[in-house]
């Protein structure tokens, strides 16, 4: 028995070696692995070196860099194809590694595990073979793990490229993706891509799972209550809120325009709150147990944004049209037109809501670009049709009213402009869809909606702020009376406060509207961008590498037009509303308006250049050109410009002054940037450069507290009674209504000559502008009185009129010496 056991112990290692004798192949392969790494066989029976894995990794890194620099859809599409090809190559590599790994695992199973501690040791040859094969397995597992990671990263990169292509649909407006009448556009419906079907099924599965979790027995009661509350808020919440608003308006707000504007703004707010509140309750049905997946949570966040904007469209339509209470309507609009237009805001909101949800699904599941184009195209088509139908229906109703003789107000300029622009944009949307520019149609659609939301909100808030300021500072309301008594204010100051605070509020609203228009769009997070197909960059190295992007040019032009409009509106407001309420004289008001205009033009120019992307530190060439130009031909223009600023700030002369300069005498009517306009007594205008008012002597007749004085010298014979004549002259002056009592008129003995006695009578008037008229009246009266008293004049006679600086007043400006 002992001999048998010894024999078995000798035979078993031999049997093991005989079993492992085919391992010569494995051993040679192991040696190859330790030296050069193994070669594997792909599904296509072609050898793939493990070093090729490093090449694939490097290619993936290169694609990532190219994706970050790509700006066109064609570039992204090519990179996506390269990424998918890399995924296939990596999959081939993995498929080739798996059989080798399985074969090595079989060899390890045949050799068996290493003997336990204390057991009989195995032969060195077996230990070496196990170690070699184990090292080979470890190396293959690392290569397989690397390949799996590489495949995952490439797949994720492909998903990111698809997302970038979908986002590019919002910015690359010149991308021709095919007409909506072509088969390519409808392919997602009749021949959807398999990847889209799989992703959509996964999304639907997650939605179904969330639905089932919400109606489980343990959550059924709470879900039912929340669902019923959501329906109640949607169905009855707005009606209850409307009744509450009406009660507040009739009982808490004074009668007037504020009541209407407050009701309109509150209508918008309650509409948004009720729709958003119902959606929030419905969201809690599914999310209160934190059972939503990240995909569904992202989808829900996007839907909430859509609900807010759609509710805002509905609310603005209800507030502006006011079909429930036509007498409270802010916009001047016939009732028939308002009723016809009442269906369009909800219809547009429903279209954008539905296709916005479709777009959110496409974005979150990472659907293909054709599917995203299909949803955008249908949304743009329906909105474009509605945009065309609204003006058509409006014109039809107006023609019908005119035909039956009903009174209809003429359309205002702003309303006509909105009508034309909306029609043009809607037609452009439909044409873009027909010729295949669906991204452009989508851009126009959402820009039209967003601009409509911003301008409608601006209109309502404009009305509300103006009416609120007028009601707050009105002397007829309780608030105005309290302010008047508390601060002992005059009614004039309350009027000034009304104008000032309403202007501040309107200015802030305009700034907010401008920010909203330039920095956001409905349904998109990117601002307006450029048509890369038309032009990518304007500018050259000769301009100091100033890159002028077409989008910046477009924004700069809009900013300049808007800035000039705001500037002119503000200037008109200052000149006609605010400054006349103050105690400033006409000249001061005109100077402030002119100075404000000049500063405003400079600001508009700076903002325009800033939006163009021009940096001031790169404009050395402009400064050099200006310096040369100033040195040769522009110095007079610059000198007059600086002199104009000095005249407006220092104010040695102002609008309305009677001045005399270089033999020119007249009234200053306007101080411009380069020259000053002086109106002569014959109503002609003389243009005087501003620099002359700084460098020459100027006689300002009306500067300071000035008065006009009329001195009439008369020569009488030597045989007259001086006291009698003196009395006649003083009575004539004292009886004239234009002669001031203080200083009192006086008569002086000028001279005694062989020709007679010269007496000078002097009287003061309020302004030198009425001297000529007063002088004429006095001469008629004096001759009449002297003739009645049988007092004759010596011949010849002379009349001299002198002026001292008087106060500004209306009237004649002829104060030159006259002879009688």
From TrEMBL:
InterPro entries: DUF3772, LSM_dom_sf, MS_channel_1st, MS_channel_C, MscS-like_channel, MscS_beta-dom_sf, MscS_channel_2nd, MscS_channel_C_sf. Residues 140-167 form a coiled coil. Residues 637-702 form the Mechanosensitive ion channel MscS domain. Its main location: membrane. Residues 711-792 form the Mechanosensitive ion channel MscS C-terminal domain. Keywords: Cell membrane, Coiled coil, Membrane, Signal, Transmembrane, Transmembrane helix. It is a multi-pass membrane protein. Residues 1-26 form the signal peptide. It is found in: Cell membrane. It comes from the Bacteria. Gene3D superfamilies: 1.10.287.1260, 2.30.30.60, 3.30.70.100. Residues 594-635 form the Mechanosensitive ion channel transmembrane helices 2/3 domain. One of its GO terms (molecular function) is mechanosensitive monoatomic ion channel activity. Residues 145-204 form the DUF3772 domain. One of its GO terms (cellular component) is plasma membrane. The chain crosses the membrane at residues 220-237, 262-283, 295-316, 337-357, 369-392, 413-437, 443-462, 497-518, 548-567, 588-613. PANTHER family: MINICONDUCTANCE MECHANOSENSITIVE CHANNEL MSCM (PTHR30347:SF9), POTASSIUM CHANNEL RELATED (PTHR30347). Belongs to the MscS (TC 1.A.23) family. This is DUF3772 domain-containing protein.
């Amino acid at each position: 028995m002992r001999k048998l056991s010894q024999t078995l112990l000798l035979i078993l290692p031999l049997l093991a070696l005989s079993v492992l004798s085919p391992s010569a192949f494995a051993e040679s392969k192991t040696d190859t692995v330790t030296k050069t790494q193994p070669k594997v066989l792909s599904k296509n029976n072609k050898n793939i070196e493990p070093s090729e894995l490093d090449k694939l990794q490097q290619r993936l890194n290169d694609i990532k860099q190219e994706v970050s620099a790509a700006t066109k859809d064609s570039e992204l599409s090519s990179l996506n194809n390269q990424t998918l090809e890399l995924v296939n190559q990596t999959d081939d590599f993995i498929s080739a590694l798996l059989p080798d790994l399985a074969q090595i695992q079989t060899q390890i199973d045949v050799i068996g595990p290493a003997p336990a501690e204390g057991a009989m040791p195995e032969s060195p040859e077996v230990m070496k073979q196990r170690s070699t094969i184990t090292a080979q397995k470890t190396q293959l597992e690392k290569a397989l793990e690397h390949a799996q990671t590489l495949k995952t990263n490439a797949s994720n990169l492909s998903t990111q490229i698809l997302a970038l292509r979908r986002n590019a649909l919002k910015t690359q407006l010149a991308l021709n993706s095919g007409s909506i009448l072509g088969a390519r556009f409808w392919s997602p419906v009749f021949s959807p891509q398999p990847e889209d079907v799989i992703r959509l099924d996964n999304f639907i599965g997650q939605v179904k799972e969330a639905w089932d979790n919400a109606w489980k027995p343990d959550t059924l009661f709470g879900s039912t209550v929340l669902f019923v509350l959501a329906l109640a808020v949607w169905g009855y919440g707005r009606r209850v809120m409307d009744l509450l608003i009406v009660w507040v308006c009739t009982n808490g707000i004074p009668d007037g325009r504020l009541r209407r504007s407050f009701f309109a703004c509150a209508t918008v707010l309650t509409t948004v709150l009720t729709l958003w509140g119902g959606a929030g309750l419905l969201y809690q049905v599914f999310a209160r147990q934190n059972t939503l997946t990240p995909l569904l949570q992202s989808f829900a966040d996007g839907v909430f944004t859509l609900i807010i904007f759609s509710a805002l469209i509905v609310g603005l339509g209800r507030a502006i049209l006011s079909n429930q209470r036509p007498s409270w309507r802010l916009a001047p609009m016939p009732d028939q037109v308002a009723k016809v237009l009442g269906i369009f805001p909800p219809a547009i909101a429903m279209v954008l809501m539905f296709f916005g949800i479709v777009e959110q699904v496409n974005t979150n599941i990472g659907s293909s670009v054709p599917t995203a184009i299909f949803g955008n195209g249908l949304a743009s088509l329906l909105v474009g049709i509605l945009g065309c139908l609204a003006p058509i229906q409006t014109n039809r109703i107006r023609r019908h009213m005119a035909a039956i003789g009903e009174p209809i107000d003429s359309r205002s300029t702003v309303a006509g402009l909105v009508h034309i622009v909306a029609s043009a944009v809607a037609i452009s949307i439909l044409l873009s869809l027909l010729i295949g520019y669906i991204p452009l149609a989508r851009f126009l659609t959402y820009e039209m909606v967003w601009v409509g939301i911003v301008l409608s909100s601006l209109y309502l808030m404009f009305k509300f702020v103006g009416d609120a300021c007028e009601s707050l500072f009105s002397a007829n309301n309780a608030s105005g009376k309290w302010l008047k008594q508390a601060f002992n204010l005059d009614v004039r100051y309350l009027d000034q406060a009304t104008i000032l605070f309403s202007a501040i509020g309107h200015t802030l609203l305009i700034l907010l509207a401008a920010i909203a228009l330039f920095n956001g769009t409905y349904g998109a997070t990117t601002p307006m961008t450029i048509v890369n197909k038309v032009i990518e960059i304007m500018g050259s190295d000769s301009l100091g590498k100033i890159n002028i992007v077409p989008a910046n040019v477009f924004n700069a032009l809009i900013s300049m037009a808007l800035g000039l409009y705001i500037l002119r509106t503000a200037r008109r407001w200052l000149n006609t509303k605010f400054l006349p309420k103050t105690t400033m004289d006409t000249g001061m008001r005109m100077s402030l308006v002119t100075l404000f205009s000049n500063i405003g033009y400079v600001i508009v120019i700076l903002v325009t250049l800033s939006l163009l992307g021009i940096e001031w530190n790169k404009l050395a060439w402009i400064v050099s050109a200006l310096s040369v130009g100033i040195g040769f031909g522009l110095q007079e223009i610059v000198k007059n410009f600086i002199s104009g600023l000095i005249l407006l700030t220092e104010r040695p002369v102002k609008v309305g002054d009677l001045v005399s300069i270089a033999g020119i005498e007249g009234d200053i009517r306007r101080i411009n940037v380069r020259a000053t306009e002086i109106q002569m007594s014959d109503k002609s205008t003389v243009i005087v450069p501003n620099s002359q008012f700084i460098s020459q002597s100027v006689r300002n007749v009306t500067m300071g507290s000035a008065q006009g004085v009329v001195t009439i010298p008369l020569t009488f014979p030597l045989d007259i009674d001086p006291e009698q004549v003196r009395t006649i002259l003083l009575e004539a002056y004292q009886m004239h209504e234009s002669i001031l009592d203080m200083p009192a008129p006086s008569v002086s003995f000028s001279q005694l000559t062989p020709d007679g006695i010269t007496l000078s009578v002097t009287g003061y008037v309020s302004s030198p502008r009425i001297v000529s008229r007063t002088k004429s009246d006095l001469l008629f009266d004096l001759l009449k009185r002297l003739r009645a008293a049988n007092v004759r004049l010596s011949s010849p006679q002379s009349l001299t009129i002198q002026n001292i600086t008087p106060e500004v007043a209306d009237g004649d400006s002829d104060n030159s010496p006259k002879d009688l």
